[in-house]
Amino acid sequence: MRPARDEKEWIFVSDTHFTGRLPGEMESFLSLLDQEKGAMGHLIILGDLFEFLFGFKPPTSGYASPFDDGSFPYPDYLPVFRQLFSLYQQGIQIQYFEGNHDFSLRSFFAGHFGMNVEVYSEGHEASLGSKRAFIAHGDLSNPRQWKYHTFRRLLKNPVTEYILRRVGPAFTRRVAQKLNERSHRHYHQNRPAKPSSAFRSFAHRKFLEGFDLVILGHSHIPEAAEEWIDGKHCLYYNVGDWMNHRSYLRFVPPDRFTLEQFENPSR
Fold it and tell me: Nearest-CA neighbor of 99 among 48, 155, 156?
């Protein structure tokens, strides 16, 4: 007898930042999903799966199978979407938390693939076993980064969304590529040796609000910490990234969390 989905494992991934332009960049990630599909009931993507992803609408109504259609706005990303579609067909629940490289995805998966994917533009509360959890991409963790907070509000608003839809995928992707080159240099070529303390401080504030589990991404550095607050055991995890660490978080119900690093068994 197959276990019920709620009894199966949860896998959290974040910040893969695929471009679709580098040979073999997706292979290890696809291997992870294939390896875990038997035990996994939930796949939680904590944002920035690609260097740029805007929820352009399909060209015609009822368009739900773009895999062989040249009109899909992100043909280079299709290997990942094919795998996600396969997982979805197997009954695995997928949730997507928008990061700072993701925009307007609420109807994207349903429109292009016919997939019922839960999309969150901000953080979200969930129950994981006995834990009251707060889950988010993590880019809003540092309240002192007011310039970034302002820039994010400019990017993620209805006016900007309307403009991007009007100019279309080709022009938008060219602009995004220029911005992503700067992001790549910042996060991958000049990456910090240790995570900012702002992430743990954010988790601590959430613990004081009553949460006893915080799961974030965005820092690109895997991290685990624990606190005891008023006799309650509180846990913080940062999933890290894929390009440099191949890290992910596993939740085995009812109460086991492990921060892991993928090693491709085929190598």
Answer: 48
